[in-house]
Amino acid sequence: MTTTSDTPAFDTSASRTLTARRPARLLWWALGLTGLFIAMGVLVALNADAPFTQPLDDAWRALVGASPDSAVYQQPLAMFFQELGEIPGHVVTLILLPVGLAIVGRWRSALFFVSAELTGVGLYSQAMKNLVDRPRPAADEALGLFGPLFHTDHGSYPSGHAISAAVVAVGVLALIPAERRVLRTVWGVFGGLIMIGMLWQRTLINAHWFTDALFGLVAGTGATLLIWWAFWPLLQKDYGRPVWFLRRRREAASA
Predict the structure, then answer these.
(1) Which domain holds residue 165?
(2) DSSP 8-state class, residue 148
(3) Which of 9, 59, 72, 225 is buried most deeply by CB count within 10 Å?
(4) How far is the C-alpha of 255 from the C-alpha of 237, rounded, in Å?
(5) What does the alpha-carbon distance between residue 181 and residue 184 come to, in Å, rounded to a whole number?
(6) Domain membership flag for residue 116
(7) Is 152 helix (H, G, I), strand (E, B) or coil?
(8) CB 153 within 8 A of CB 216
(9) Crossing angle, helix 160-175 and helix 107-117, to 10 degrees?
């Protein structure tokens, strides 16, 4: 005798219902990192021309900063990070990825990713840049130091590129269900490398001081964790949900 099941194709089990509750630790991490980012901004603003981190920033710049004659900053790896935080990267993160998610039926995930980008790159980055207005590294030929090797806007704190890198790293991690541990681990390592690589590239081209890039990563992580917490119940509904056209194909095959 055969039996039939009324269980839908996607997971609506009690365990997933329980995980739909927003985890407090995610909120506390988000608020903690955001508070750290704001506190650092206040401290830098007290003396934007030479904040208390200037000795560390100067030492890192002397070690990592490139000259216009260097070929390193124009190599594919460095240019990948340069473009990630500019129009090509924004096209992927604000248009292509969200549209792709919406097409496969994950509109909640698409809305989450757009919200994380706008919060991090838009609110956190631009608000703090205008409030702190820290000067970017300037050329000093006597010391063999150079200014930004690419066009930059005003405000060195925080690095908008670093915020973008953190949003991508943490945002994609949020799209992967906790059950997919191997995939989450692989992306966690790759996302961490993206963040470290962006810190290197922004200081390599003298676009930012070390602490600008470091706290850009802090800001991007905090902003994305905050939006992750806000969207937690909606993302749970997308986890395990089969792509709509594949589900229809399976239903047609079993009919």
Answers:
(1) 24-42+72-135+142-245
(2) -
(3) 225
(4) 26
(5) 5
(6) yes
(7) coil
(8) no
(9) 160
Query: Is residue 206 one of the residues assigned to a domain?
Result: yes
Q: Which of 220, 219, 217, 54 lies closest to 135 in space, CA to CA?
A: 54
Count of residues in the chain: 255
Do the Cβ atoms of 114 and 229 come closer than 8 Å?
A: no
Contacts of 59 (CB under 8 A, 6+ apart): none
Q: What is the pLDDT at residue 5?
A: 41
For residue 143, the one-letter residue type is: L
Alpha carbons 242 and 223: distance in angstroms, whole number = 29
Q: Report d(CA 43, CA 51) in Å as an integer.
A: 7
- Are the beta carbons of 169 and 216 closer than 8 angstroms? no
Rounded-to-integer distance, Cα 13 and Cα 36, Å: 38
Closest to 215 measured CA to CA, from 26, 45, 25, 27: 45
Please tell me what DSSP assigns to residue 21.
Answer: S
Report the alpha-carbon distance of residue 253 to residue 146 in Å, rounded.
65
Is residue 215, in this structure, part of any structural domain at all? yes
φ, ψ for residue 122, nearest 5 deg: -85, -65
| Count of domains for the chain | 1
CATH code of the domain in which 128 resides? 1.20.144
Q: Within its chain, how far is the Cα of 218 from the centroid?
A: 10
User: Helices 181-204 and 54-64: crossing angle, nearest 10°?
Assistant: 90
Residue 65 lies in a domain: no
Q: Are 26 and 211 in contact (CB under 8 A)?
A: no
Instruction: Work out the angle at residue 9's Cα, subtended by the Cα atoms of residues 3 and 12, and round it to the nearest 5 degrees.
Output: 100
The pLDDT tens digits for 180-226 are 999 999 999 999 999 999 999 999 999 999 999 999 999 999 999 99
The residue ranges of the chain whose pLDDT is under 50 are 1-15, 17-18
